[in-house]
């Protein structure tokens, strides 16, 4: 069910000399999280493709370039192999061994990667064994014109910073998992519950709703679009129960009651959280709501400065719900547009809007920034679902995220 | 079924002194066309509201201001009545009797109308009895600052020019009939057939499709959205046949075959033609296709300059279909964006695009220009439906237009 089309996985090639620590880095990027690893078999000297989840980057294809990691210049065969890998690469990560530092191998590699106009993130590994001075790091960085970070794949130091750099360098057209297309089979019927309230744009639908319909059509499924008040009637009019019901988060309670228990139910927010954010990171954030205590600081962040309605969701509703949940006062701060405040560590929780005005990379960058500061982050839709006690049901199409919630 | 919500009817108040010919003008505006007249009863001295169709303006509410047409200044009672009428007016038409010309009555009236920021079209009537010189017309026009046209309600001279002026002066927010909302009752299911081809925008739906879904939701109906290939399956999955099937014009043949004979079928083009154009005028244009003869000149007009696909519909497909239909060569000319060529009379037919980039007023202005030149005009969708022999079926939701086609 969570099969991600190859096209929407960010393809990350890990380059480096044999002793630089490529494998440890791959483990560090994935091992502290739940990693779904499926190796594509190959000979020991062929590059290995591994489908993985990296939080908060989402589904990726890691290309382990064993076999083109000889120290020294790149021979004819190895150049050809490197080129084959680069043909499939969206982003290159170059792992550098600190004792030898930048050698001819790295310089040749950077040339080959730059020739394809591909982004490169560089790491000096093994900071636990040999600490590199900031001056040395800067000098190497200038020498090969590649951003460099000191990390330790062994201790995990710098890994979150690297993820943030990778997100920043990812290509513009990087799309991530589909909205809904991978959740349906041809001929499936999906019911979309679209309330028409004051926030709905005049004569239109909001973009995620349109994109969901389109994604269903692209995948040979049928979309039944209905307001919450007509949902029961629409379900009764179908000979078979639908494969899935997707609702606007704000109608979750009513829609949950009107949808038969056997039918999978989720929300546009959750689809969007996966499509342009990282569902697992946000579910971890939702769990953190239960650990809030009176007096804690909460940051409410919105991606754009929209016209506020009376009883605005970010300004009024969410603070009210959180106070009720914690049974006491909380200290709220708000930020909108632009970026996060410089010091996130003082917050116990970040609540982010759905990010409809942010692209995937911007959203992931924010998630990565929160992770790096060690602050859980949740979005509006998941928060609402969690506080209404329906998040578990709404995650049914996403077993991995559901597992994180219950563990 | 063709009940037009009051809000979408253009409310046109006809003012003028008692002998100016208000009633004849109302007859002239509507009588050469099929007029659906339903008088709202009132005393003889009260304004009368008449729901009518004026081609190509569409459904209008004519306000006949009998009772406030005394010659002389506007007395207290009459001012109040005038104000009551103006509260409901979108556009004022002032009928002037040529012998007396512009009097205090007209000047007071213009003042009252201008105070409400309402547009005024002025006509000097009875040009068949007393011809007014262009100089005199211009002088009066300047005197009261109102555009004036010389007409004869009796002979019909100038009536089409007046319609064009009325369209030009109509308010910006004039919307016309809904896309689909008046064709459904609460709880109805409507199947929308949305093919996904190269012309579909990436990850989205085209605007008329989104607007149709929204209009259905606004009217408590349920939209089943499906590609043409899944239509049969979707219909089979419904316990009751849908109230209506709406398809993209280009899939009319396949969709017509897959839709049970008892189910009403129409196209987005036809919905759009009514919503932002005038369905009856365009159906008259469709009929004219059958009168084309080899050697005739045909103008193909597009509202915008879009990126042309291979086998472009306006450049390639429609000329090919028309040639096949007429059984010989035709002389085509093309125009896009901007306006029509100055001399339309040389064309036997104008074929216009759906006008998705034009608003209702712009589209109607083009229809009125064609009518004034006496040239039939049809749009892409209606032409396709007619040439495929399915226009009659596709007009089932619109009995008036269907009548025009068969008469």
TrEMBL record, chains A, B:
Q: Which molecular function term from Gene Ontology is one that the record holds?
A: GTP binding
Q: Which Pfam families match?
A: HydF_dimer, HydF_tetramer, MMR_HSR1
Instruction: Specify the domain of life of the species encoding this protein.
Output: Bacteria
Enumerate the CDD domains for this protein: Era_like
Q: Name one GO biological process term.
A: tRNA methylation
What keywords sit in the KW lines?
Answer: GTP-binding, Nucleotide-binding
State the GO CC annotations. cytoplasm
Provide the G domain boundaries: 11-126
> The Hydrogen maturase F dimerization domain covers which part of the protein?
179-277
The cross-references to InterPro entries, in alphabetical order and at most eight, read: FeFe-hyd_GTPase_HydF, GTP-bd, HydF_dimer, HydF_tetramer, P-loop_NTPase, Small_GTP-bd
Specify the Hydrogen maturase F tetramerization domain's residue ranges.
Answer: 281-397
Name of protein: Iron-only hydrogenase maturation protein HydF
Q: What is the protein's species of origin?
A: uncultured Sporomusa sp
Q: What is the lineage of its organism?
A: Bacteria, Bacillati, Bacillota, Negativicutes, Selenomonadales
């Amino acid at each position: 069910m969570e099969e991600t089309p190859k096209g929407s996985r960010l393809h990350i090639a890990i380059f480096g000399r044999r002793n630089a620590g490529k494998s440890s880095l791959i483990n560090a990027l994935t091992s502290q999280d739940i990693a779904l690893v499926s190796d594509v078999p190959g000979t020991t000297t062929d590059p290995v493709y591994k489908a993985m989840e990296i939080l908060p980057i989402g589904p990726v294809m890691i290309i382990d370039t064993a076999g083109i990691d000889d120290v020294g210049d790149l021979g004819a065969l190895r150049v050809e192999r490197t080129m084959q890998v680069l043909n499939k690469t969206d982003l290159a990560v170059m792992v550098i061994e600190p004792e030898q530092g930048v050698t001819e191998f790295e310089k040749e590699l950077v040339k080959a990667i730059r020739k394809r106009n591909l982004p490169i993130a560089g790491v000096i590994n093994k900071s636990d064994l040999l600490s590199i001075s900031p001056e040395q790091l800067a000098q190497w960085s200038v020498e090969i014109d590649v951003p460099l970070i000191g990390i330790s794949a062994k201790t995990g130091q710098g890994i979150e910073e690297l993820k943030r750099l990778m997100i920043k360098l990812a290509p513009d057209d990087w799309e991530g998992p589909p909205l809904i297309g991978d959740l349906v089979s041809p001929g499936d019927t999906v019911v979309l519950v679209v309330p028409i309230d004051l926030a709905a744009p005049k004569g239109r639908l909001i973009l995620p709703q349109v994109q969901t319909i389109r994604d269903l059509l692209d995948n040979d499924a049928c979309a039944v679009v209905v307001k919450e008040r007509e949902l029961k009637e629409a379900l009764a009019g179908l000979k078979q129960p639908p494969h899935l019901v997707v609702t606007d988060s704000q109608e979750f309670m009513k829609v949950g009651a009107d949808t038969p228990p056997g039918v999978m139910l989720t929300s546009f927010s959750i689809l969007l959280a996966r499509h342009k954010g990282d569902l697992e990171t946000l579910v971890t954030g939702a769990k953190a709501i239960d650990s809030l205590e009176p007096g804690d600081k909460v940051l409410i962040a919105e991606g754009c400065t929209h016209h506020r309605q009376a009883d605005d969701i970010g300004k009024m509703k969410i603070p009210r719900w959180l106070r009720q949940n914690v049974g006491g006062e909380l200290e709220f701060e708000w930020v909108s547009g632009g970026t996060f405040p410089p010091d996130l560590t003082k917050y116990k929780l970040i609540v982010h809007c759905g990010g409809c005005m942010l692209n995937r990379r911007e959203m992931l960058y924010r998630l990565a920034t929160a992770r790096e500061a060690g602050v859980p982050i949740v979005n509006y839709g998941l928060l609402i679902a969690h506080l209404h006690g329906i998040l578990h049901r709404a995650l049914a199409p996403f077993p991995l995220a559901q597992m994180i919630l219950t563990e």
